[in-house]
Amino acid sequence: MRNFARKPMTGFVPLLIALLGVISPYQLYAAEAGSEFGDLYAANCAVCHGAQLEGAAQGAPLLGVELKHGQEVEQLITSISDGFPTQGMPAWQDILTHEQIKSLALWISENRSGLLYSDFKIDSELRIPTAVQPSEYHNFVFTTVADHIDPLPFSIAPTPDGQILVTEKMRGLRIVGVDGSLSPLITGTPATFGDARKGGGGLEYGMGWLLDVALHPNYANNGWVYLHYTDRCEGCNDISIEMQRPVSMNALVRGRIENNRWVDEETIWKADLAHYSPASDVAAGGRIAFDPDGFVFLSIGMQSIDLIQDLSAPHGKILRLHDDGRIPADNPFINHPTANKAIWSYGHRSPQGLEFDPIERKLWETEHGPRGGDEVNLLLPGHNYGWPAFSKGQNYNGSQVSWGTKQGIELELKDIDQPIVDLTPSPAVSSFVLYEADAFPAWKHQFLIGSLKAADVYRMKIEDNKLVEQELLIKDLARVRDIEVDHNGHILLLLEHASGGRIVRVSPALLEQQATAAAP
Fold it and tell me: Who's near 361: CB < 8 A, 6+ residues apart?
């Protein structure tokens, strides 16, 4: 069983809570993030490689070409560190710090891949392709299922009869009919709040949001719908009273939908009010996953950074419960004297996707790193995934991730589970599915993973806990907030965009469509 060593802290926690009350975790370093990396390049590299990475008389271009010595971040770090003295490029390892060299490598990689930190693609041009889209194994087409959804949706859940439940973070729950029509908001669901504030890149920061929606595996017989949301209150704990601000924390309920009303609600999990935080719900996690044995998993993000490695707190954890909310007797910390007994794994930053693989009986998660370091993780019971003591990415100002040291947390690398897939530079990985349907047979038992900042969808084949194949399936579409599979085995994408959210379907291209596309 894993645990952590921790030294007493004085003064740091109140300061951090105060910071998080006014600044999102994503914004802690954002004031410097946009310029600092570029300034470092301009001061040290631009004279040889060009101000826009276009190259110069004495240096090769860094954009639009294959880099002879490798273009992955680690390869770039090696090239910058060691240099190529015989070709006129000095070794920088004795001039710049390792973190400065890593910052340069990340910044070059971000520019090469179009994943600039400051571009979140909130209002980038949105065009749903009408032509047949090629991919390695299957050609496919897009169809718009529903539009005019709120610009900030979070989750979809297709029902057996062809309808789709959709959550709008700041508004509530709706039903998309088989004809694409949107129902009025379902009445009686948990309260939501729309008083968010704009942050860098157009992102919204607030609290009291509706997040994931999921159908019980036996929904056809019991009608249970699960909602993961952030419960918001004011004046309900010491932090809220002291700061005179609202606080929130994840919660999970289930209920049924009858005549456009939410009824029969039952609370599956809710935290003690002492754990409610003033941090923005942008990092709240908020996903739901079921396994075939009657258990439900839920993800909670870094609502308070200093508590992620604290087993008595829910922050930065994946929880496991019976589907009615009871604590399973075989949970990994059930006999720990001070731990929250619902914890399955811990050390998570911002969990974005959560799925259980019923074939191999494994729980998987996607997670946002800081600048770089997005992850695909295999979640094992009782294991520690490292945040905030370790990340393959950097803080937004280029410094090393070392919050654990500041908090007096001592962790050895051997006690931290590393990601199965590291995504650096960060595409802002989002939700995913493990595809098991027949419509796209060559994709079976593979991961289809969405992204926000990249606006892409990736196909990943993982065998024996190793990435063996990866394809950029869909490029530059829109922020993909959720991915699901409908009753026909077609892929549903929930898109987030300033012009309005929408659901699009990815279907196999018919033979006649492929022939038309191939015609001269």
Answer: 291
CATH superfamily of 140-518: TolB, C-terminal domain (2.120.10.30)
CA distance 140 to 298: 32
pLDDT band at 15 (very low <50, low <70, confident <90, very high): very low
Same topology for domains 5-113 and 140-518, yes or no?
Answer: no
φ, ψ dihedrals at 313, nearest 5°: -110, 155
pLDDT at 28 over 60: no
Summarize pLDDT for 283-300 with one digit per residue, the tens: 999 999 999 999 999 999
With CA atoms as reference, report the closest residue to 226 among 237, 234, 217: 217
CATH architecture of 5-113: Orthogonal Bundle (1.10)
- Asked if 484 and 475 touch (Cβ cutoff 8 Å), the reply is no
Is residue 282 within 8 A of residue 20, CB to CB? The reply is no
User: How large a percentage of the chain has pLDDT more than 70?
Assistant: 90
The pLDDT of residue 88 is 86
Cα distances (angstroms) measured from residue 108 to each of 56, 72, 309, 403, 444: 16, 10, 33, 26, 35
Asked if the bond preceding 388 is cis, omega within 30° of 0, the reply is yes
11 pLDDT higher than 60: no
d(CA 246, CA 21): 9
CA distance 192 to 203: 18
Average pLDDT of the segment spanning 111-129: 87
How far apart are the C-alpha atoms of 42 and 82, rounded to whole Å?
A: 20
| CA atoms within a 13 Å half-sphere pointing along the CA-CB vector of 85 | 5
Domain ranges in the chain are 5-113, 140-518
Name the nearest CA neighbour of 314 among 327, 295, 330. Answer: 327
Tokens of 440: 């796209």
Q: Is the peptide bond before 425 cis (omega within 30 degrees of 0)?
A: yes
Beta strands 374-379 and 362-368 are antiparallel
CB 449 within 8 A of CB 429: yes
Dihedral sign (CA 123, 129, 135, 141): positive
> Which pLDDT tens digit goes with each residue over 55-105?
998 889 999 999 989 989 999 999 999 999 988 899 999 999 999 999 898
Q: How many CA atoms lie within 13 A of 299 on its CB side?
A: 33
When pLDDT is cut at 50, 70 and 90, the band that residue 400 belongs to is confident
Q: How far apart are CA 212 and CA 426, in angstroms?
A: 23
Distant-in-sequence, close-in-space partners of 332: CB < 8 Å, separation ≥ 6: 1, 343, 344, 381, 382
- CB neighbours of residue 498 within 10 Å: 15
Find residue 377's DSSP bridge partners: 365
* Strand partners of residue 374: 423
pLDDT digits (tens, 9 = 90+) for 245-297: 999 999 999 999 999 999 999 999 999 999 999 999 999 999 999 999 999 99
Measured CA to CA in angstroms, residue 23 lies from 17, 269, 288 at distances of 10, 27, 27
Amino acid at 380: L
Task: Using alpha carbons, select from 357, 516, 448, 488 the residue that is nearest to residue 137.
Answer: 448
